[in-house]
Amino acid sequence: MSSLVDTNAFDYINVLDKAADASWLRNDAISNNIANADTPGYKRQDVNFETQLAKALRSSRYTSMDAKVANVKMNRLNPITYTDYAGYSYRIDGNNVDPDTEGVYLAKNQVVYQGLTQSINQEFQNLQSVMK
Fold first, then answer.
1. What is the pLDDT, as a whole number, of residue 72?
2. What is the reported pTM?
3. How far apart are CA 16 and CA 81, in angstroms?
4. Can you give the residue range of the structural domain that contains 125?
5. CA–CA distance, 109 with 115 (Å, rounded to integer)
6. Alpha-carbon distance 48 to 59, whole Å?
7. How many domains does the chain have?
8. What are the Cα distances from residue 99, in Å, to 10, 24, 31, 32, 122?
9. What sign has the CA pseudo-torsion 37, 40, 44, 45?
10. Per-residue pLDDT tens digits of the chain, which is 132 residues long
């Protein structure tokens, strides 16, 4: 007899969990950018996750979204922090952080994180209603 864990019931939850982790990491990067807005030579950091997810979902081109999510290799789906515009600076001290822009990025990321957590909760509610 197969258990719920052996099925693909958690595929979406696993991908959403990875996306939420990436959003949390991005929140840390943006907060760090804001904290270092006056640090000479500091370069803003960001997180790359969406590109990896799109590439992972594109690998199985002519299949349903369920099949695409089921085929995602979770060990290859990791957020990467990188230095954004490393060679660019609009200030004399070499810093490339604009606090106003970072505030917008932070607000956007908070909305994304809230959406991801709501989606995770909805997936668990779906599982719970199926088990009743």
1. 83
2. 0.83
3. 19
4. 4-131
5. 10
6. 18
7. 1
8. 39, 19, 10, 11, 34
9. negative
10. 344 444 567 888 899 999 999 999 999 999 999 999 999 999 999 999 999 888 888 866 778 887 888 888 888 888 999 998 777 887 899 999 999 999 999 999 999 999 999 999 998 888 888 777
Tokens of 119: 């989606």
The residue among 17, 120, 26 whose CA lies nearest residue 72 is 17
Residues 6 or more apart whose CB falls under 8 angstroms from that of 95 comprise 36, 37, 38, 39, 40, 41, 42, 43, 89
Cα-based distances in Å from 67 to 19, 58, 97: 18, 11, 41
- DSSP per-residue letters across 11-45: HHHHHHHHHHHHHHHHHHHHHHHHHTTTSTT---E
Q: Token pair for residue 126?
A: 């779906």
